[in-house]
Structures are given as structure tokens and as C-alpha cells.
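Hi, here's the filled form for the chain we discussed.

Project: internal
Contact: R.S.
Residues: 278
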Amino acid sequence: MSKLLEKMKMDLVLRGYSKNTQKTYLDNVKHFSNHYGKSPELLSEEDIRDYLFHSISVRKLSCSFVNTAYSSIKFFFETTLNRDRNMKNIPRVKKAKKLPVVLSKDEVKSILALTSNLKHKAILTTTYSAGLRVSEVCNLKISDIDSGNMQIHIHDAKGNKDRYSLLGKANLLVLREYFKVYRPSDWLFPNELTLAPLSVRTIQKVFQDAKDKAGIIKDVSIHSLRHSFATHLLKSGVDLVYIQKLLGHTNIQTTSIYLHLTSKDILNIISPLDTLGE
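And the returned structure, exactly as it came back:
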């Protein structure tokens, strides 16, 4: 790693950025530098604009990815180099407001029932039961499972925050069965060869295989279990503020997207056409 990137890493640590964010920001600046074959401090505002445009129009990268690259480059110039690259002249990508795709309870039940591998079943059950991000599932330790208080302790989650989520009774039964067979010693779901935590990609594939086996054709990912957790709680009458805390959202506006996914109250509205004869 170059001295500049070492300094950037130190700046990220001093600012309290999570390890995942540190890695993402450093990787983004490396990609930016490699794109031009130059050290990043030699690149101009126009180079930044062209790089972001290329990422959108040629590489077809997502809005989230491009906006994270934007933030990474901005941090590098403004914080690490203490230079003003006038990033205000370079607009961020406007993110499309798409509703997340949610699985029904029957679909979740089918996915879990058809997952025969006990370790895979434990992973998917825990993801849905506690509404976890895939990175949070990867980083769970045995000590994070608090069966006395029926809660799961999530460390260093998004935004470098700790929180607690639910440990469901059915989830605990599956975890106990899993523990008896696999006997993990530190990480809850380790790679059996390296004993390091399973990778995000491995868990994503576990979900995709289970989804395909269940015959679900919706465009869903492992993260859809988290969306489903929140939506199913909201439909059952749980207050939005509690769901916000369980998900670890800083802003309740982020959680409020699930209001658009629940049809309980909307379906009780009577069409004006049906009242014309009254």
C-alpha cells in the first residue's frame, strides 16, 4: 500500500469509519487510480467527473456503487490531501426510489423447509429471524447468542454501531441443533477449512441455491430476508420505531419504506365507485 493510501487508512480510522467502510473507500480510490494509471493525487476534477461518468455509462455500475465511489474520492482529496476539488460541481447520481422485493411468509417457510444442510438452514433462519445484513451474519460469534435474554448482539454493524436484535425460539432450537453437530469454537458460522468467518459471497450463494430449490422466481437476494423480516413485523402490528431499532437504522425515514409494502390498511379502503349507490 502506498504512503498516501496508508495515510488515508489512518484518516478513516481516526474518523471512526468501520472496517468494511475503510476497505471499500481504499478499494475505490485504488480503482480510480488504476483507471488512469496515475497516482490519485495527480488527477483532476475533470478526471473525477469522467471516471464517474464512465462507471455509469460504460461499466453500468449501480447508483449506490457510484455514489460510494464519489464519497471515497471526495474523502481522499478533502481529508487525506486537504485539497478542495470542488466536488459540488460534480453531481451525485440520483438514486431511483424502488421498493424492495419481499418474500411472503409461505415463501420464507418453503426456503427454510427445503434447505436440508443444517448449517445452511441455521444461517438462513438466523438471517430472517433477526433481520440481519449478510455481513452481520458472517461476523457473528457464539458469544453473541444470548439465550438468557433471547437476543443477538450485533457488533460493529453499518455505521460502526452495536445493537441487539431478536433471538426467536425457533431460531434458538435450530442453532442448538447446529451447534451439537458442527461444534464451532469462536465464529458462529466459520469456514470449515480456515476457521475464519464465511464470506459474504458464500452466504449469498447458499440463499440463491435455497431460493431456486423452492422454485421462487422473484428477483430476490439474501438481503430480501431482512426486508421480509421488517415487513412481516409491521404487518403483525409492531411499531415502526421498534423495527427501526431492530434493523439498526439511524433515520426512521429509512425504515418507513416498509410502510409502502404493507397492504393491511390500504385494502380496507373502499373505492368511491362502490359508494355511488349509497
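Let me know if anything looks off before we file it.
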